[in-house]
Design a protein that fits this description.
The protein is built from 5 helices and 9 strands, in the order E-H-E-H-E-E-E-H-E-E-E-E-H-H. The chain is α/β, with parallel strands linked by helices and 189 residues long. The structure holds inosinic acid and magnesium ion.
């Protein structure tokens, strides 16, 4: 296989990801001194959540939601793992890996509002705002990115690459063509 022209650029190193979590942790702690419920969207947000939560010196409860897309163009979503916590009357921050079209976030914000949360705000590691289909407000943004597929630090392509410690940009076609070889190359720094 010939080498792709634009191979696997690093978008954010582990140290830059840590700095983002620190900055957002400071902002959230300042805004919610009484504490907050973090609702993380599985699975892409796990690394970000793990870093973020350790930057929050305020009372903090964690819960998880998993959604699955279905239907024509996979534009409809349903809950496959629901919340365990009661969020009525609570201040909730939804933690996401990336906001792309905004469909997922819009769904989450509505769901949590329907559960009677006192307030609901989004915190996204990445914002690919150029691809938005639905206008959504994101209270805390790690980094705005261009229209490129990213993997690593929890983010996947077909369930692979979540375990890379940095965020990498990669063409999905290249990744799908030779997944194992690409994984080797992604691990090489
Ligand atoms: P949205 O509903 O279009 O905003 O999509 C958000 C979800 O799509 C995210 O929570 C991710 O799971 C997934 N996603 C979108 N872009 C990427 C990407 O570049 N890498 C990995 N996952 C992505
Ligand atoms: Mg995914």
């Amino acid at each position: 296989m010939s080498e792709p022209e634009q191979p696997l650029a690093t978008l954010l190193e582990a140290s830059e990801l840590a700095a983002i979590a620190r900055r957002l942790g400071r902002e959230i702690s300042r805004d919610y001194p009484e504490g907050v419920v973090l609702v993380a969207l599985l699975k892409g947000s796990i690394c970000f959540l793990a870093d973020l939560v350790r930057e929050l010196p305020v009372p903090c409860e964690l819960d998880f939601l998993a959604l699955s897309a279905y239907g024509d163009g996979r534009t409809r979503v349903r809950v496959v793992k629901d919340l365990d916590l009661e969020v009525a009357g609570r201040d909730v921050i939804v933690v996401l890996d990336i906001v792309d079209t905004g469909l997922t976030l819009a769904y989450l914000l509505r769901l949590i509002a329907l559960r009677g949360a006192r307030s609901t705000v989004a915190c996204a590691l990445l914002d690919r705002e150029s691809r938005r289909l639905l206008p959504v407000e994101i209270g805390y943004v790690g980094r705005v990115i261009n229209d490129e597929h990213v993997v690593g630090y929890g983010l996947d392509l077909d369930e692979r690459y979540r375990n890379l410690p940095s965020l990498r940009v990669a063409d999905p076609a290249d990744l799908r063509a030779e997944p194992s070889e690409m994984f080797e190359r992604l691990l090489r720094r």
